[in-house]
Design brief:
229 residues, globular, 35% helix, seven-stranded parallel sheet, alpha/beta
Length: 229
């Protein structure tokens, strides 16, 4: 019987009356516990302009948690790519992968992770006319590849940082299948689409060199307590 690996998605919540610095300490403590308990991954999600969530500088926090653990895979679940230049993300995660080899994951989301005004403040020059996400993903993958172009991600080039496509729609499932990438479905947002998205991803999957078979993770909400009461 195969064992399903479990992982943690952390939004780094800031409770009322608390401060982000306390949340960062709690996240590191939780990551260390998760590592001891045998969890496989620990991902952080990018959000902005939300006083109750402190995971805005996602790559910085990933480095903090990776430095405080030793075996746990630490990653982004995810980076909202429309907010950023692909080159900047390649450099950030190339740096993380260089510091913590074979422990860094890069999950990519298509949503802004905030409101439109905040998105404009993060990355001002957007066409608004076409969906740039597939092209941005390909550009980012190129920075991690072996072929050296006119612009290089240093560090990043040749590191092949694992890229995941994340989403809560059938669009994300289709794109991940078409690009031969692992897929993470946010069923805590859209539980009714979970089975359809996974079926679509698996049946339409195009094998890639790194991922010859489809590979999917599912995010669900769990409530844990010492007793049922």
């Amino acid at each position: 019987m195969s064992v399903v690996p479990y992982s943690v998605l952390d939004l780094v919540p800031v409770p009322e009356g608390s401060w982000p610095a306390e949340s960062f300490r709690r996240s590191l403590d939780l990551a260390r516990h998760a590592e001891r308990w045998g969890y496989h991954r620990y991902w952080l999600a990018e959000h902005h302009n939300m006083p109750g969530i402190a995971s805005a500088a996602t790559s910085v926090l990933i480095g903090h948690l990776a430095g405080g653990t030793s075996t746990l895979r630490i990653g982004a679940g995810g980076i909202m790519l429309p907010n950023h230049s692909p080159l900047v993300i390649a450099e950030q995660f190339g740096t993380l992968s260089s510091l913590y080899p074979d422990r860094i994951d890069l999950g990519l989301g298509r949503a802004p992770g905030s409101d439109q005004r905040t998105m404009q403040a993060l990355r001002r020059q957007r066409s608004g006319e076409v969906d740039d996400f597939p092209a941005d993903v390909r550009e980012l993958m190129g920075y991690f590849g072996d072929e050296i172009g006119a612009v290089q991600a240093v560090p990043g080039q040749g590191l092949h940082v694992p890229i995941w496509l994340l989403g809560s729609s059938l669009y994300s499932a289709q794109l991940a299948a078409a690009m031969g990438l692992p897929f993470g479905f946010a069923s805590h947002f859209a539980p009714g689409l979970l089975l359809q998205a996974l079926e679509l991803y698996r049946t339409q999957y195009r094998p890639s060199v790194r991922w010859p078979k489809p590979y999917a993770v599912v995010c669900v909400n769990l409530i844990a307590a010492d007793s049922e009461q």
